């Protein structure tokens, strides 16, 4: 790889999670290409602004591409050379002139149920509860360690803005309730620890891990930005399939940039790339985006790809298929066709 005096600019969002992912890519770039210069370029996206603005109204999903558009503009105008995305945020149809150059090794794809500890919050004096309490107001409800979706009490309120998560939970537990929740991960955890308007939330395990949060054997969620008294339970895939691309980091580049294509070829993790390609082909064939009520998970099994998916577009439909690892698009389209077929 030739040396260059000009640094290769890696565009990223400015959230804590986006920065953690970008630094992981930056470190991989520097280790793989020690003679090249790489620098981060932080860009605020429309999606970042809407998450905290009044436009992010309850019940209204953020349109696709809001977390990627400004990064892609920077690529197209030559103000950046690589854009790092949570792959679940990257639309399946990219703007002309751009391509998905690489996908790094995937983290754990599972989701995590996060809730308050009954013992911790019951032990706090009323005046020390982190909400303003008035007579008749509900206290902060908590649960025992290792609580799962299956044993939450009826009426439990789960805060999530994901239609995919809501649909799967409703199919499993129609007696639970939902409310909207936006913001970065630390903000969501702080709201859970201080607001009695909901009892639990669900976040991706990959994001928690990249922020250096951990789940102890006793079920406690710990980390520098984690409020005291929060518990967590990892949800198995047979209860909660992830969204397309969850746990994977995508690197977007200009389609005509041969130098960056060569760099990305060294950064790409083949098995992860083939798996997420199958998932993205499935989502594209279903005609949906990241907020569609569909979920899918592909994994390499004995040098083949296995793709499991669920759709709530027309009732609850599930499908599963296995195909050759070298043809992930056909596998994704096959599973989509199964789900769209008339029962």
Structure overview:
The protein has helices at residues 16-32, 46-52, 69-76, 118-122, 163-172, 185-194, 205-210, 258-267, 270-286, 328-340; strands spanning 8-12, 38-42, 82-86, 98-103, 111-116, 157-159, 177-179, 200-204, 214-215, 221-222, 230-234, 249-254, 294-301, 304-311, 317-324. It folds into three domains: 1-106 and 247-268, D-Maltodextrin-Binding Protein, domain 2; 111-234, Periplasmic binding protein-like II (D-Maltodextrin-Binding Protein, domain 2, 3-Layer(aba) Sandwich), CATH 3.40.190.10; 269-343, Porphobilinogen deaminase, C-terminal domain (Double Stranded RNA Binding Domain), CATH 3.30.160. The chain has 343 residues and is α/β, with parallel strands linked by helices. The chain is globular. Keywords: Porphyrin biosynthesis, Transferase. Residues 8-261 form the Porphobilinogen deaminase N-terminal domain. GO terms for molecular function: hydroxymethylbilane synthase activity. Its EC number is 2.5.1.61.
Uncertain segments? 53-62, 127-137
Tell me what portion of residues adopts beta-strand conformation: 15-25%
Helix content: 25-40%
Separate helix tally: 10
CATH domain fold name of the largest domain: D-Maltodextrin-Binding Protein, domain 2
- Strands across the major sheet, in which order? 2-1-3-12-4
Helix and strand run: EHEHHEEEHEHEHEHEEEEHHEEEH
Query: What gap, in angstroms, lies between the N and C termini?
Result: 54 Å
CATH superfamily of the largest domain: Periplasmic binding protein-like II
Shape: globular
Number of domains: 3
Rounded mean pLDDT is 88
**CATH class (first level) name of the largest domain:** Alpha Beta
Largest sheet, described in full?
5 strands, mixed
- Alpha-beta classification: alpha/beta
Q: Would you count the extended β strands for me?
A: 15
| CATH hierarchy: architecture of the largest domain | 3-Layer(aba) Sandwich
Radius of gyration: 21 Å
């Amino acid at each position: 790889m030739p040396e260059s005096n000009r640094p290769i600019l890696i565009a990223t969002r400015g959230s804590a999670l986006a920065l953690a992912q970008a630094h992981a890519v930056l470190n991989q770039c520097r280790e793989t290409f020690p003679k090249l210069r790489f620098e981060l370029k932080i860009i605020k996206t429309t999606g970042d602004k809407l998450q905290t603005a009044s436009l992010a109204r309850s019940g209204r999903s953020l349109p696709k591409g809001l977390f990627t558009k400004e990064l892609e503009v920077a690529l197209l105008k030559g103000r950046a050379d690589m854009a790092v995305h949570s792959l679940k945020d990257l639309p399946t149809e990219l703007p002309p002139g751009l391509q998905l150059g690489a996908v790094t090794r995937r983290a754990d794809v599972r989701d995590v149920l996060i809730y308050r500890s009954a013992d911790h919050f019951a032990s706090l004096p009323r005046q020390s509860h982190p909400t303003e309490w008035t007579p008749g107001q509900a206290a902060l409800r908590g649960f025992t360690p290792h609580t799962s979706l299956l044993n939450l009490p009826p009426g439990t309120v789960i805060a999530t803005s994901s239609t995919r998560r809501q649909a799967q939970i409703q199919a499993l537990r129609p007696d639970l309730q939902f409310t909207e929740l936006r913001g970065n991960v630390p903000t969501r955890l702080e709201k859970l620890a201080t607001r009695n308007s909901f009892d639990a939330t669900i976040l991706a395990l990959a994001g928690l891990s990249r922020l250096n949060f951990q789940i102890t054997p006793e079920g406690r969620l710990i980390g520098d930005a984690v409020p005291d008294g929060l518990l967590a339970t990892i949800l198995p895939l047979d209860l909660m399939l992830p969204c397309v691309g969850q746990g994977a980091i995508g690197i977007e580049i200009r389609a005509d940039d041969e130098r960056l294509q060569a760099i990305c070829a060294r950064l790409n993790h083949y098995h992860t790339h083939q798996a997420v390609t199958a998932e993205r082909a499935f989502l594209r064939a279903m005609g949906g985006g990241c907020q569609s009520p569909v979920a899918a998970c592909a994994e390499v099994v004995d040098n083949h790809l296995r793709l499991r998916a669920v759709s709530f577009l027309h009732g609850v439909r599930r499908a599963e298929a296995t195909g050759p690892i070298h043809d992930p698009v056909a596998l994704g389209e096959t599973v989509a066709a199964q789900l769209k077929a008339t029962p």
